Amino acid sequence: MSLKSLSKFLKTTDADLIVNDYKKEYINGNAVEYTYDLPRNKIVSFCDYVASDTISEILLPAVTYRLGLIRDIGYRQLEGMPYTDTQWVFMPILNVRTLAYFDKPVYRYLIGREGQSVSSEVFKKSLAVRYFVYSALVDSYVESGATGLYKEFAVRQLAKHAMGHYKTQLVDNPRLDRTLLYKLDDELKIKVPEAYTLCGISEYRLHLPYKYVADWRKTRRENIPLYVRIAGGILDSIGKMRLKIKKIL
User: What SS3 state is found at 225?
Assistant: First the structure.
């Protein structure tokens, strides 16, 4: 990895945000390197990229902020709990004005270790922590007073992270207690109605026009209807079959 090179690079730039490449490595030996379609060797306006897919998909391993920015906004990182990587990527970025790209991998993101916060078992056992962190994101957005493209970015991110909660409890683990999900849903409706609306139009499966969050809000049903789950399974099978055919061809 190129940590020393990144340190040298940081001494040459005063950009608010530095995005770097990184690698995801899996316990089965597979690896994927993540790179970004951003200008090299110059500082650019963040406003030109805040609405791009590149920025909307960046994760903690790719993000470094200028120390002065962190101090200026009085940023405080939550500690001693999982899922705070979303806080690091989301909160300071609403104050970023300039961007630079370091096109070398700096971080090895190891996936598949037992007990990782990204594992499904840890995920569903940490609902209270996840809600606490998400609520902090919502409050930071409200306090930021973000407008224009920054507001659009924040709304999309909050909707994306909220969908992780909806999917975990409505699709993957419908028997889990939903007290915190009700609280999240109410908070989103009051504080970020635009994100609330985006979640409501999300579909259960690609090409399957069943808006499961909107249906749950209306009916409070316990499970996704059987006919919808069957249709979703069929579409998943067709998709896997197409991938196999493409590989053969």
Answer: coil
Q: Are 44 and 100 in contact (CB under 8 A)?
A: yes
pTM, two decimals, is 0.87
Gap between the Cα atoms of 17 and 9, Å rounded: 12
Give the phi and the psi of residue 20 in degrees, each rounded to 5.
-125, 160
Q: Taking phi first (over 0 means left), then psi (-120 to 50 degrees means alpha), and beta for anything else, what does residue 163 get?
A: alpha
Asked if 134 and 84 touch (Cβ cutoff 8 Å), the reply is no
Return d(Cα 231, Cα 226) in angstroms, integer: 9
Per-residue pLDDT 10s for the chain (249 aa) are 678 899 999 999 999 999 999 999 888 888 899 999 999 989 999 999 999 988 998 999 999 999 999 999 999 999 888 889 999 999 999 999 999 999 999 988 888 765 444 555 666 678 899 999 999 999 999 999 999 999 999 999 999 999 999 999 999 889 999 999 999 999 999 999 999 999 999 998 877 889 999 999 999 999 999 889 888 888 878 878 887 777 776
